[in-house]
Amino acid sequence: xxxLLQQIINGLTTGSVYAVVALGYTxxxxxxxxxxxAHGEVVMIGAMVAFSVISALAGxxxxxxxxxxxxxxxxxxxCMVMGYLLERAAYRPLRHAPRLAPLITAIGMSIILQHxxxxxxxRNPLAFPxxxxxxxxxxxxxxISSVQIAIIALSLTMxxxxxxxxxxxxFGIAIRATAENVHVxxxxxxxxxxxxAATFVIGAGLGAxxxxxxxxxxxxxxxxMGFSLGLKAFSxxxxxxxxxxxxxxxxxxxxxxxxxxxxxxVGDLTNLCRWPGAGEGMGWMGERCAxxxxxxxxxxxxxxxxxxxxxxxxxxxxxSGLLGERVSERA
Length: 331
Fold this sequence. Notes:
This protein has 12 helices and 4 strands; from the N terminus they run H-H-H-H-E-E-E-H-H-H-H-E-H-H-H-H. The chain is globular and about 75 Å long. The chain has helices spanning 2-32, 39-57, 64-91, 100-121, 146-168, 170-180, 182-187, 192-218, 225-240, 245-269, 283-290, 303-317, and strands at 126-127, 136-139, 142-145, 220-221. Strand 2 (136-139) and strand 3 (142-145) form a beta hairpin. It is mainly α and 331 residues long.
């Protein structure tokens, strides 16, 4: 039971990061039906900028919490500017082009940002400075660290804040109106270009915080980290329902839990030597099991395979995702 609880805690932590990144994908898609594949690299840029600032201030006399906060404060505007430039220079000129053009552009911008980071920060993995005392607390036989608590709490706060912003503010109404029908929203006095740019900027700001959380949790930053993180977050958005804010949150949490539970139990469940009758009449495998060895079909390194298998299963049974596709239904 303690292993199950530990894996749930780990899954909630990882899933919280996925959910925050997925919000960037789902907001942009909900408004202009564009998959911004460069969003993962924006998250990576946020982690790298925070790494540079924290590393520069790590030897100073400032309190560790203030140093990390300075890294976050530097990463957020850097990513927001990056998100705005992506929308203004790469996506806005192609807004009325065939769907394939902005999709290819998004992939191209992802590659460009990745190699720019390679030029600035190098190809070697960077050890994220661990300057805050990471205390560990016991809970029901499992352990949860102060970093995990901070990640989960901060993610939930940002998700709740974004939901309040979208559904309870005037600008949030403008975002939902633009998502409903950009032409009618323009007739009502809404500046669609401003709203669309804002969705990129807000998503990039959330991504910056997610990048710092990811680096703080795993203790590493690399110029390629945005690819796998972005792919998983995009999958989480699709799992919950692309364009649906609540769906992105749910999909991220579920994906993190499946990965964590897969890490903890896939090896045991696929160990053929533990199956009833495995040592009887099974030739060389029976001899191997009789010697106390293991015959594991899938180890913990297959955790992502099972996460994506779950995604495929959900999409086969419910193609629109668990909670449906859009932020709001179109007329």
